[in-house]
Design a protein that fits this description.
Helix content: 25-40%
Order of helices and strands: HEEHEEHEHHEEHHHEHEEEEHH
Number of helices: 11
Strand content: 5-15%
Distance between the termini: 34 Å
Number of strands: 12
Oligomer: single chain
CATH topology: Alkaline Phosphatase, subunit A
Structural class: alpha/beta
Length: 401
């Protein structure tokens, strides 16, 4: 049976709707023989909440300053998953080492922004809106959806969580937000049943009512699509102990849902490792690396690997010196990971200097994180849209061939 694809979905719902910086140690990979059309490409954004310790994630094991600042927490070279002669991954990240070896992992060093906030809530809001030290009513993923499709479209954005992220808040699109696919449905009182079941055609010439009815129709049809996608999904791929919502994204993609933008998170401030960091941090990174490696292999199984790029970030890094509780405190510059078959795998950006910390013992960022956002917009989804989405010109990092 032919899969129900994005164009089919949009067509059938239409009746109910109203009309670079320097890179170092890079290595390339061959592009697919037939490039994926731009309007069929997907971006998955994955958030590590709590402030992941980038220095103990991608470790500069030849740098004496690293071990001087972290006499206990510093991970010894013989324990690391070595990437090259200078860098090694945390020993829990075998999944990412496999992606690296396959040429599907890019690491952007030194990501941050001017006048950083050490508040989880504030800094995450800056990353969600791509508007540090200012703000925006809408998230950067939501604004990206508005630019990609400047008319309300069902299922354009999928956010897998218990509550909607600010990152996906859109002026035009209603994100599909769910946590448990089996329970995802539109609820209401008996008296409102007629409204929940209405379509844009019931508006009798009232544009405002037509819009609201279209939103209701989009939510109703999207919830049915999600439930059907999840019920049909079966995979032999191992996502590790904690799949982190990623099989739900794979199920939606496999079912041919129209979504171009997916957002998920490692929740509950898990990476806020102030106390006894070593074992906890390695375990968390194992969960994340295994789940994302499983996701990438599952995309291959369903024939969608060439269509998907994954961006993984955290709201800030950690302070360079370890603290008295054998943990690390809130810091600044961090690494961003980008995964996919179309990326230029390897290291990107400039690592912050460990011998030139600021007065708070923090790293000086070298790559504005909005440059990485600009990279996935310009290099993967739609050239020319980044300045409008991000509210300024940010030179993309050279992440895509």
């Amino acid at each position: 049976m032919r899969q129900f694809n994005r164009r089919d979905f949009m067509h059938q719902l239409a009746a109910g709707m109203v009309a670079s910086p320097l890179a170092f140690s890079p290595f390339g990979r061959a592009l697919a023989a037939t490039p994926v059309p731009a309007d069929d490409r997907i971006l998955v954004v994955f958030e590590l909440s709590g402030g992941n310790d980038g220095l103990n994630t991608v470790v500069p094991y030849t740098n004496d300053h690293y071990y001087r600042h972290r006499p206990t927490l510093g991970i010894k070279p013989d324990k690391l998953l070595k990437l090259d002669d200078s860098w090694g991954l945390n020993p829990g990240m075998l999944g990412f080492k496999r992606l690296w070896d396959a040429g599907e992992l890019g690491i952007v060093h030194g990501c941050g922004y001017d006048t950083p906030s050490f508040s989880h809530f504030t800094s995450m809001a800056y990353w969600h809106t791509a508007a540090p030290n200012s703000g925006n009513d809408y998230g950067w993923v939501g604004r990206l959806a508005d630019e990609l499709h400047p008319a309300p479209a069902p299922g354009m954005i999928v956010n897998i969580d218990t509550v909607q992220s600010l990152a996906v808040k859109s002026r035009l699109h209603t994100p599909v937000v769910f946590d448990e696919p089996d329970r995802f449905q539109r609820n209401g009182f008996y008296e409102s049943a007629a409204l929940l079941g209405a379509s844009a055609l019931d508006a009798q010439g009232n544009p405002g009512l037509a819009y609201l009815n279209a939103v209701a129709a989009s939510a109703r049809d999207s919830s049915a699509q999600v439930r059907e996608a999840w019920h049909a999904y079966r995979s032999p791929v191992d996502y590790g102990i904690v799949p982190l919502q990623l099989p739900k994204i794979a199920a939606c993609i496999a079912a041919g849902m129209p979504s171009r933008l997916y957002y998920a998170a490692f929740r509950n401030n898990a990476f806020d490792t102030h106390v006894q960091q070593a074992d906890l941090h390695q375990r968390l990174l194992t969960y994340a690396a295994d789940a994302l490696h499983g996701f990438m292999r599952d995309l291959e199984r369903i024939g969608a690997a060439d269509r998907v790029t994954v961006l993984m970030f955290s709201e800030f890094g950690r302070r360079v010196p370890e603290n008295a509780n054998l943990g690390t405190d809130h810091g600044t510059a961090n690494v961003i990971f980008v995964m996919g078959k179309s990326i230029k795998a390897g290291h990107h950006g400039s690592p912050p200097a460990l011998d030139a910390l600021n007065e708070d013992d923090n790293l000086a960022f070298t790559t504005d994180f909005r440059r990485v956002y600009a990279s996935v917009i310009e290099g993967w989804l739609a050239p020319g849209l980044a300045p409008r989405v991000l509210g300024g010109d940010f030179a993309p990092v050279d992440l895509f061939a």
